[in-house]
TrEMBL record:
Protein name: SDR family NAD(P)-dependent oxidoreductase
Species: Planomonospora corallina
PANTHER family assigned: NAD(P)-BINDING ROSSMANN-FOLD SUPERFAMILY PROTEIN, RETINOL DEHYDROGENASE
SUPFAM superfamilies referenced in this protein's UniProt entry, alphabetically: NAD(P)-binding Rossmann-fold domains
UniProt superkingdom: Bacteria
Length: 314
């Protein structure tokens, strides 16, 4: 049964002394998440593909809040080389991460493959974040949180682990839904493995509902007329859409193993939703983990098992 907590962005507490990594922070949800965390005193490392755009967003936020502690760094989730460089740079700088917000991604794009031969939406939205999480797990603070931003469209996702290139059949919306299912499966599998290892780091999965910044992506599988109707009645203002993600990233009371969303559109508040369908397939989650490990050369379980930092050339 779903349950909700009476919490809004206005309840976000003081984040002074805490460091957040937010992927995709140069636009949309990521920029709004960044704005709120910095306004509460948090240091935000803005992990962005386009650093010039990221710097413009940083400068705009600082103009409104001169004390904002913002650090723009390059990260292209489709290119695992940049993921490694990003993680290496944080390690070299001695950065300890309190919350990693895996928010960035692409949606409903033409068919394209990553250098590893994986369909680009799955490669960007899932594999890039899988690798980033694995490479930063030993840099997480005690009690830190990994927040994977998913979508209710995971219910419509079909994940074929024997065709990660989507060569047999491809549709932009279907590939996006598959990537969101992969996000959910990864977030839940990471939670299981963290708990089994007795780690103080938590893995949470959150979603923004149908936000005003992402209607075309979130409704990609629906007819245009239905998209318009849903947008009129159910689209959330961005402040309400980021609330579940901010709650997951900052509140120790946030529940793992649930989909933390905005709940009812007319009275949005962080709501702990039960996962259904393929999200509950633990065998599929384990298989996805193994395929991701082989494709990226990164194993997030390694720091849990050895206590050693991940090697640079795993």
């Amino acid at each position: 049964m779903d349950s909700a907590v009476d919490w809004s962005v206005a309840d976000l507490g003081d984040q002074t002394g805490r460091t957040f990594v937010v992927t995709g922070s140069s636009s949309g949800l990521g920029a709004e998440i960044t704005r709120h965390l910095a306004a509460r005193g948090g240091r935000v490392i803005m992990a962005v593909r386009d650093t010039a755009k990221g710097e413009r967003v940083r400068d705009r936020l600082r103009a409104a809040d001169p004390g904002a502690d913002l650090d723009v760094r390059h990260l292209d989730l489709l290119d695992l080389r940049t993921v490694r460089r990003f993680a290496d740079d944080l390690r070299a700088d001695g950065v300890v991460v309190d919350s990693l917000v895996n928010n960035g991604g692409i949606g409903t794009v033409p068919h394209r493959l990553s250098p590893e031969g994986v369909e680009s939406q799955l490669a960007t939205n899932h594999l890039g974040h899988y690798a980033l999480t694995g490479l930063l797990l030993d840099r997480m603070a005690e009690g830190g949180a990994v927040v994977t931003v998913a979508s209710g469209l995971y219910r419509m996702g079909r994940l074929d682990l024997d065709d990660l290139a989507a060569e047999r059949r491809y549709s932009p919306g279907g590939a996006y839904a598959a990537s969101k299912l992969a996000n959910v499966l990864f977030g839940l599998e990471l939670d299981r493995r963290l708990r089994a290892a007795g780690s103080p780091v938590r893995s949470l999965v959150a979603h923004p509902g149908m936000a005003r910044t992402g209607l075309s992506r979130e409704a990609a599988l629906l007819p245009r007329a239905v998209q318009s109707a849903l947008g009129f009645f159910f689209r959330l203002p961005i402040g309400a859409a980021v609330a579940p993600i901010l709650y997951a990233a900052t509140e120790p009371a946030a529940l793992t193993g649930r989909h933390i969303g905005p709940g009812r559109p007319r009275r949005p508040r962080p709501t702990f939703e039960t996962f259904t369908g393929a999200a509950a397939d633990t065998a599929l989650a384990a298989r996805l983990w193994d395929r991701s490990r082989l494709l990226t050369g990164v194993d997030p379980a390694q720091p849990l098992e050895t206590g050693e930092p991940l090697p640079d050339d795993a």
